[in-house]
Amino acid sequence: MPGSFSRFVPIACALPVFLFGCGQTGPNEVASSSTTTPATSAAADGSAVEADQAAAVGAETQVQKRTPNAGINPKNQVDIVREEIKGGEFQEGPTPFEYLWQPEKQNPEPDEPLNVEVPLGLPELVAYVPKANPLTTAKAALGKQLYFDARISKDGTVSCATCHNPEHGWTDQMPTSTGIKGQIGSRSAPTVLNTVYGRSMFWDGRAPSLEGQSQGPPQNPIEMGEQSYKEIIERLRTIPGYKEQFLKVFGTDVTLDGVSKAIATFERTALSGNSAYDKYTRRDMSALSETQKRGMILFGLRPNSDDPFKTDVKLKKAECTSCHIGFNFTDDQFHNLGVGWNEADKTFADLGRWAITPIGAKYDKELGAFKTPTLRDLSHTAPYMHDGSEQTLEEVVEFYDKGGNPNPQLDKDMKKLNLTKQEKADVVAFMKALDGETRKVELPTLPDGPDGTAPDPKKALTPPSAKAALGNVHGLVR
């Protein structure tokens, strides 16, 4: 991101820190890469070796050039430590520690445990909720307000719900998301649905929790604006309603720790289940049509043992369960499908998981690899892939049928499937059977600001356009 927000101090002084973004990349992250220029080649240790420097060694010395064949441009590699420090703002950065976390100033008021009705097909939440942030009623209500409040963004135009709108499958249904001042990001907004069960967040898995994920977008210059946590927390502290609620819920002033915990609590209530497939697994044989049952078998799932349905389609011919497994239809792992690979240049448009892996732990198989998304509610979360490059489920199946895009790090399970036209239609029909019941999310009433007025959360549900944002170039706060 533009501007270095802090300098390095010992890790013991810091809150957990994470990289930027709802799933997008900022200016200093690798959004694209190009081939090495003729004058530059990659040495064995990954450093750049200039051709004129090599010539200076002597005519008798022959320098062996090595051209990257897996989409790595050394000049564009991400310095993971630098990025984390900028995102996390250690204690000696511009944000004093008491804005990030505080001990209790008073005892929080008693808060009722939040009773979340878990739909059919999903496990109870207790095993997936961190002990440091239990589900409670008042905290979830506070998190819902913060989730829909655009005052977290620098100019008051973008909220969490701008890119993760419950009415749009908890996404924005755009190929890549639009942030502050109409800026376009480089990745598609993942759905919030069922993220309570996730092992990591973002397409590249750089945050281990929803609490960590929520700290990224407010500082992403493309998403919510280039601003320190101090600016954000000071702005929220001017809102009497938030000051009062934080004292009741956490016993503190408004802090980044409390904001993160409240938003994560609300997001853990976003669930998708009780689909036609879930009903079928509970012995409702009529819940799936014959084409959906064929698609289920092609997908890799066996029919109920007492289902009289018969077919000659091959089990797991579509190879879907190689990655899309379990109740949430994801292995939460990272795979290279060849999305974004440019065969002519031998480069990836986005290096994915590899870019955020620390030096000393980098693994070639993570090049161009992205997290397996849940398949629940797919009908409402188009377009697909991390870059929104596939517009329909039919296109997705065609992409897999051809074996993805061949590249040096292609996942071992990616291969040509040779599905028939009918089999492709059957697989699509089954994936649509994973759509869950619709749960209406009512917009919250936001607390009044210092001027006595409150913003309408509905306005931030429409992403700002570049034209409309011209009046906000100075980062005005409503």
Characterize the structure shown.
This protein is mainly α and 478 residues long. 23% of the residues lie in helices and 3% in strands. The protein has helices at 51-56, 80-88, 97-100, 137-148, 160-163, 210-213, 229-237, 240-249, 256-267, 276-281, 290-299, 353-356, 393-401, 421-432, and strands at residues 40-42, 48-50, 334-336, 341-342, 347-348, 369-371. The strands form three sheets. It has a two-stranded antiparallel sheet. Strands 3-6 form a two-stranded antiparallel sheet. The longest helix is centred in the first third of the chain and has 12 residues, at 137-148. The chain is globular and about 65 Å long.
Strand order of the largest sheet: 1-2
- Gross geometry: globular
Number of DSSP helical runs: 14
Rg on CA atoms, Å: 24 Å
Residues in helices, as a percent range: 10-25%
State the end-to-end distance. 24 Å
Major sheet, described briefly?
Answer: 2 strands, antiparallel
Class inferred from helices and paired strands: mainly alpha
What's the mean pLDDT score? 83
What's the order of the H and E elements? Answer: EEHHHHHHHHHHHEEEHEHH
Say how many strands there are: 6
Can you tell me the residue ranges where pLDDT is under 50 for at least 5 consecutive residues?
A: 1-21, 25-70, 74-92, 468-478
Q: What proportion of the residues form beta strands (DSSP E)? A: under 5%
